[in-house]
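Open question from group meeting: does this chain pack into something compact, or does most of it stay loose? Before anyone orders reagents, we agreed to write out a predicted structure and look at it together. Recording both the input and the output here so the notebook holds the full record.
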Amino acid sequence: MKKIILLFTFASFSCFSQSYIEGYIIDKTTNESLPYSTIKLISSSDSYTITNEDGKFEIRSKLPTDSLEVRFLGYQTKKVPISFFNKNTKLYLASNINQLKEVFIVANKNKNNSYNLLNSLIQKYRHKTLITESKGFLTLTSSSRGIPLEIIEGFYNSKQSLSDGIIDLKIKSGRFGQNKSFPFYSLNNTQVLMDFQFFKNSNQILPFYPGNMTFNEIKRKYIVKIDECNSCSDEDLKISFVPKKFDGRLFLGKIIFNKKTLTIKKIELEINDPITDGLSSIITNDEITPKQIKLVISFNPADYEKIQSLKLNFMMYYKSEEALQIIQSNSFLYFYDYNKSFEEPYFSSNIQFNNDYDKIIALQTTDDFWNANYQFPKSFNEEKSIDFLKKYGYLINYENTISSDNIKYVKPSLIIWNKNKRLEWQSIQEVLASNSNVNKLSYQGLSENMKADKVYHTTTEIDKDKQDTFSNNYKKFNFSFLLDQYKRESGEKQFITRTIFDRNSSFYRNERNNINLVYINLIFDIYEYYRQSLETQINNKMTFDEVKKICDEKFEEASLTVEKMKNETNAGLNFKSLYKWNNTVNEKLNINNYLLIMNQEQL
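Structure tokens returned:
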């Protein structure tokens, strides 16, 4: 959690250091907060943020004489010096007043004008195929009857275009918490958002809207008209569209755009009782019934050629053998630092992740990274969810280490080496699992399946091009080094390495006794020993490629050593030789696998 949050006990807040400014953006007339307002530092072309759902913001400035520019669609842009917040906690914006008499007169003369105008917008944006890279920040909360079920926060590398929408999302770092009594996984919302096409035809998961249709389809299926938009500026219009027949596959909504340049500023879509394509529960007998979907697409007011955020509100009925739950899942995906990206994490072996939950656990996190990159303050609802899940659930990555008490609830497909936690047979598959239902996106509720491996999202295959040196028809173990890089708040570069075991692509069919378990743990320990050796050879002045090269070299050395142990111990069957290797590992890492495993009951 950011250090500035500790200052909330003061009666009011202002510019509490030379680095950070915080405040609220408020509607001057209604005195209501303005969520997701854009805040920009005048001194910098790319230093900006947005307010959270409570209208609150934080931004850092190195210049005490700097100024802020605040924008919110339908309101007058306002500029104030940052010193304004030394004595004030709130900044008020006045709304625009737009008269549309002329527009209505023109529209009434020709009923096709509204259709033609909408079609002109769509055709223009279908040709906007330029791909823009950026960083992304996701917040997601799910609840049932007001009780928190899940919270997720994550940083992503993103690719977007105005025609396709979100083309790619790759998680850099994340954290999540869940309710122990009803574990519900909704991170697949990011897949739903990526699947939605802004201005192209598609067999997408979500319902369609005019941007996905031809001109004739729009005329056949929609009533389109120009509506009053009292809060829009003089240069803007609002065009609305309502299905002629509500069949569950057509959004109603509106588009706000500049009438001269045909530049879209916001798209708002909603539907009740939607029919979705490919959403299901991972639990066979449980049913998911979507009841309401709202999707808001906002474009960046500093450059409307870029997507600023997507907000997805998804209400569903979840029916299980135990009960019927009404679940509300809210996702907000914010894009920033356009044409920049985080360094992608590197794995020395091919790793097949089930989902982003697995990747979050593998990458873990650090306070330094989150303090340096956090985009806006947590909202009241987010703070409430975290407090609740601390007491009645579990949190992953909200500290620099993941508690073993918490990780047992998640059952990830990857296991990170831990001196105090040995591999157990229950963590190693007897056969490789596969899933024939990989095209469907799944949501999960409480079930005995929580105790099973998460092998229901993707199909895992043995990498034919990269066969393991200690793999055969009855066993295969896939270990890997993880290399990641981030920057501290000071701007200093930091490398992180870990040794991981990929359960998804590993299996063991032979006799599952303790002596064989010692052998497998020794393999894990050998890789960890070489990873620790890697740590001594790298420094923060090296480039990522330089460190990656050393990482590969060390992994190769470790693999050769593992192969040597396999030959000398006859794959663990030579008890005397295996005991010598156990002593060698004990000398290097102070871990006696014989002592820890052989005298225990079958694990």
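Observations to bring back to the group:
Confidence is low (pLDDT under 50) at residues 1-18, 435-440, 445-469.
The longest helix spans residues 544-569.
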